[in-house]
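Record now logged underneath.
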Amino acid sequence: MPAVAGRGRTLLASACLAAGLASTAGCGTPGPGGRPASTPSRTATPSTSGSPTRLDIGPSSQGSTVHLGLGGRLRITLPSTYWGHVATSAPAVLGLTGTRTRPSRAPGCVPGQGCGAVVASFVALRPGTAEVSARRRLCGEDVLCPPAERRFWVRVVVR
């Protein structure tokens, strides 16, 4: 494992690797004081058709299938500013409306630590299925992500 400046981050990275976590949550994304950053919960606003009109998801939705009503909005928040390459496999079904990086201003965050989040927004354009994915290579400064933590994906069914 590459050397990492800061004992707290080294311990966090070691604990994540040793535990063999396949989840994207927490590892390499320490919050203030070296603790893992909190992850957004999955929330949905239902529509009359039964499919949500607004869906907010994060790492806990990794590998799952979610449903969204036509014209509905999907927001994915991934903790760590190291996430990138956000894409949809079917832009005619689920259109990417924007991505932004929200850096954290929390005390204890230092440059290169990845404090913050990447937020991607989508709109359901027509019925069908699309896969949304994001990639990262690093989980911290000079810390390569384990292969299972390099890709986030979720399948979206638009009704």
Remarks:
- Confidence is low (pLDDT under 50) at residues 1-41.
- DSSP finds one helix and eleven strands in the chain.
- The first strand starts at residue 43 and ends at 45.
